[in-house]
Amino acid sequence: MQVKHSLKNSDKQITYYLTEELGKGCFGQVWGGIDSNQIPVAIKIFHFTDDKNLKAWVNEISNQIGFDHKNIVKIYDFFIDTEPYTSNTRLVIVMEKALTSLDKYLQINKNFSSIHVCWIGCQLCDGLFEIHNSTVIHRDLTLRNILLFPGYHVKIADFGISQRKSDLYLPIVSNTGFPNAIPPEILQQGYSDFQSDIYQLGLILLTLLTGQEPIPQNLDREIINHLINEGQPRKIAESLIEKFGNLAYIISCMLRRRLEWRYQSVLELREDLDKELRNIQMIQMIQMNQIVKNFNQEFYQ
Question: What superkingdom does the record give (predicted)?
Answer without folding.
Answer: Bacteria
